[in-house]
Write a structure and sequence with these properties.
The chain is an alpha+beta fold. The chain folds into 3 domains: 5-73, no CATH class; 85-234, DNA polymerase, domain 1 (Orthogonal Bundle), CATH 1.10.150.130; 246-462, Orthogonal Bundle (hpI Integrase, Chain A). The chain is built from 16 helices and 11 strands. The protein has helices at 58-73, 85-94, 101-119, 129-140, 153-163, 204-223, 250-259, 271-284, 289-298, 302-307, 346-367, 388-401, 412-422, 427-434, 439-446, 450-463, and strands spanning 5-11, 17-19, 32-36, 51-55, 167-171, 177-183, 246-247, 267-268, 313-314, 320-324, 340-344. The strands form 4 sheets. The chain has a 4-stranded antiparallel beta sheet, with helices on one face. Strand 7, helix 7 (250-259) and strand 8 (267-268) form a beta-alpha-beta unit. Helix 3 (101-119) crosses helix 6 (204-223). It is elongated and about 105 Å long. Residues 264-459 form the Tyr recombinase domain. Residues 33-54, 183-202 are annotated as: Disordered. Keywords: DNA integration, DNA recombination, DNA-binding. This is Site-specific integrase.
């Protein structure tokens, strides 16, 4: 181990670094202390003598070099101090080979728009909690910078990355280009993601989703001993406001028709409205009716229903399907890629799916050699996977065409829960059916719909009693 030396980044007239030869190094405040130590040979067997630094004093440098040399001599992996956080994010996402396309796109968006422009230049082994906190602070200031305050360098980098984000055209299930133009990697079920090209600030929930991606990448780095601790574990995040569903009551529907304003961001149909939607699907001859019926009654996520396979179904005896759970904004943390749950579909859904299988076989015969054998239950007419955005767009078109109170496709999960509540299903069974990781989460979310459901049940009970005389009590 060599003795620490003092170096700086000054350059001569030819642009060459002076390093240890700078005449200003005699000044106490100029330059910093660096040192080299003997690391284990690389994969090619060649000698490795990494530089470590900068340090404020020679004493600090000598102490740290002794620690690094002891660590290297112990045989433990030595962090690659040339590996930046941005380079590691690229390595990490490239290794996630089993991700769904839509999930990969959301991860890549978090990396491209926030992780790399914000912190990509920081050496991986030097990333600290303060770096992540500064990133999330800057994200919270997008379209939300206090009046008169100048943007930080971090915020300027994020804004530049968002301004340079490419745009793509939305396509239907068959790949045909549609008229509407959306930002690449920034589309949600109904349009551009908040903040991508709009003037809305990023929500705390969105910042938390980005954090989960970066935290997962850092967790992998920690497991591989590339870093000594995961700085993402101890970062305080902005608290996301829990948005509870509201039921489309008669009063809310009347107000919506009068003003055009939706009462809340998450709305839920009553069983009667859900029935009207399913009836409309039948009347219209909607090809995806079995899919919408399954989601409305069993509460599958969009990615889950588009990913179920015939080999994971038992429609004749158990009447169940096995679902590979997808990442969902309802739940905390990233789900395991091998997280499965079994869902009982019931007799009606089993009948619809059996009829769908017959229809799919007819489509396969019609497609001939052009058929794409994916093994999926729900596919396009040529057997290729359904685009999740297309499933949402078809749903929105039916809702709008039938003049039904608007909800998102994802809100059919809440409709399923509401219908199960109205039918008297226990909350724990509802939690298991929906695939929530915590029962408490289910109870917390649906507390707001319980009074409306209970009131509807009370009215239905009273209405079921035959009366010859109807007298109003005063």
């Amino acid at each position: 181990m060599a003795k620490p030396v003092k170096r700086c980044n000054c350059r001569d007239s030819n642009g060459k670094k002076l390093g240890q030869k700078c005449p200003k190094l005699t000044q106490r405040a100029h330059g910093a202390w660096w040192g080299r130590y003997e690391a284990p040979p690389g994969p090619d067997g060649k000698r490795r003598r990494p530089w470590a630094g900068p340090y404020k004093t020679s004493t600090e440098a000598a102490t740290e070099l002794r620690r690094l040399q002891t660590e290297a001599d112990s045989g433990l992996p030595v962090p690659d101090r040339r590996l930046t956080f941005g380079a590691w994010l690229d390595m990490w996402i490239a290794g996630k080979r089993r991700l769904k396309d839509s999930t990969r796109e959301s991860y890549e968006e978090a990396i491209r728009l926030y992780g790399k422009p914000g912190l990509g230049h920081v050496p991986l082994d030097q990333l600290r909690e303060s770096h992540l906190e500064a990133l999330y602070l800057a994200m919270g200031q997008i379209n939300n910078l206090p009046f008169g305050e100048k943007p930080s360098e971090m915020l300027r980098r994020l804004l530049a990355a968002r301004a340079a984000a490419p745009w793509v055209y939305r396509r239907d299930a068959q790949g045909n280009r549609l008229k509407e133009k959306l930002p690449a990697m920034g589309s949600n079920e109904a349009g551009p993601a908040p903040g991508m090209k709009s003037k809305k600030p990023l929500s705390p929930a969105r910042i938390q989703r980005v954090h989960r991606v970066l935290s997962s990448a850092l967790g992998t780095a920690f497991k591989q001993k590339r870093i000594k601790h995961n700085p993402a574990e101890h970062v305080e995040l902005p608290k996301a406001r829990r948005v509870r569903p509201l039921v489309w009551t008669d009063e809310r529907i009347a107000r919506w028709r009068e003003t055009g304003r939706v009462p809340g961001p998450v709305m839920v149909w009553t069983p009667a409205i859900a029935g009207a939607f399913l009836d409309a699907c039948v009347r219209r001859g909607e090809r995806l009716y079995p899919l919408y019926h399954l989601v409305t009654t069993r509460g599958l996520r969009r990615g889950e229903v588009c990913g179920i396979r015939w080999e994971d179904s038992d429609l004749s005896v158990a009447k169940t399907i096995m679902v590979l759970e997808t990442d969902d904004e309802d739940d905390d943390g990233l789900k395991s890629e091998s997280s499965w749950r079994t869902v009982a579909v019931g007799g009606k859904n089993a009948t619809l799916l059996s009829a769908w299988r017959v229809q799919q076989m007819r489509e396969r015969l019609a497609a001939g050699e052009d058929w794409v054998d994916t093994g999926l239950i729900f596919t396009a007419a040529d057997g290729s996977p359904l685009r999740e955005e297309y499933v949402s767009e078809r749903f929105a078109a039916i809702v709008d065409g039938e003049d039904l109170p608007p909800i998102r496709l994802h809100d059919l999960r809440h409709c399923a829960a509401t219908i199960m509540l109205a039918a008297g299903v226990d909350m724990k069974d509802i939690s298991a059916t929906l695939g929530h990781s915590r029962y408490g989460f289910t109870a917390d979310v649906y507390t707001s719909v319980v009074p409306d459901v209970a009131q509807a049940a009370a009215d239905a009970t009273i209405a079921a009693i035959p009366r010859a005389i109807h007298k109003h009590d005063h």
